[in-house]
Amino acid sequence: MAVLLPWILGLGVFVLLVIIVSLKIINQYERGVKFTLGKFSKVMEPGLNFVVPIFQKYRVVDMRQTTINLPPQEVMTKDQVNLKIDGVVFYKVTEPEKVILNVEDLTTQLEAKASSELKEIIGNKTMKESLSDREDIAKKLLLMLNEAIEDRNSKIKKIGE
User: Fold this and answer.
1) Which tens digits make up the pLDDT trace of 142-156?
2) Under DSSP, is residue 133 helix (H, G, I), strand (E, B) or coil?
3) Residue 159 pLDDT > 70, yes or no?
4) What backbone torsions phi and psi does residue 98 show, to the nearest 5 degrees?
5) Under a CB-based contact definition with an 8 Å cutoff, are residues 64 and 92 in contact?
6) Taking the chain, what is the end-to-end CA distance rounded to the nearest angstrom?
7) CA dist., res. 99 & res. 30, Å (int)
8) What is the DSSP string of 41-107?
9) Can you tell me the distance from the alpha carbon of 52 to that of 31, in angstroms, rounded to the nearest whole number?
10) In sequence order, which residues have a C-beta less than 8 Å from that of residue 85 and are 6 or more positions away?
């Protein structure tokens, strides 16, 4: 029995270390996306979570509202007037699994998509329409940005809903 005591004690310490390493804390404003053997498992809620080392990995997604400043750029309107436009995009992640599974870098993709789509929207309007239809421009831009993160095979909640 005296020979087995160090083995039992060593095994106990090993199990305790694995449990400690497996515990992960997710803050209230975050969600964790858990993968088991590389496959999506679930969304981890705030608080203490268990992640099995080697077999499971996770990525954290910030759920707070975030802003992106669009750099100023020149756009030609439908009536051949040059306008210098810029903008601010406010977004909030509502489904973290869609962001992790469908988008490599959300901020970069939204900034690029918003800049190009804003140019296209303004390019299809006259100067007068561009200056007066801000709400229509914002709605069109929102629809196009939602498509940037959408999984075409499933229905997801849109940004801003």
Assistant:
1) 888 877 666 554 444
2) coil
3) no
4) -70, -40
5) yes
6) 65
7) 13
8) EEEEPSEEEE--TTTEEEEEEE-S-EEEEEEEEEEE-TTS-EEEEEEEEEE--S-HHHHHHH-S-HH
9) 17
10) 72, 73, 74, 75, 118, 119, 122
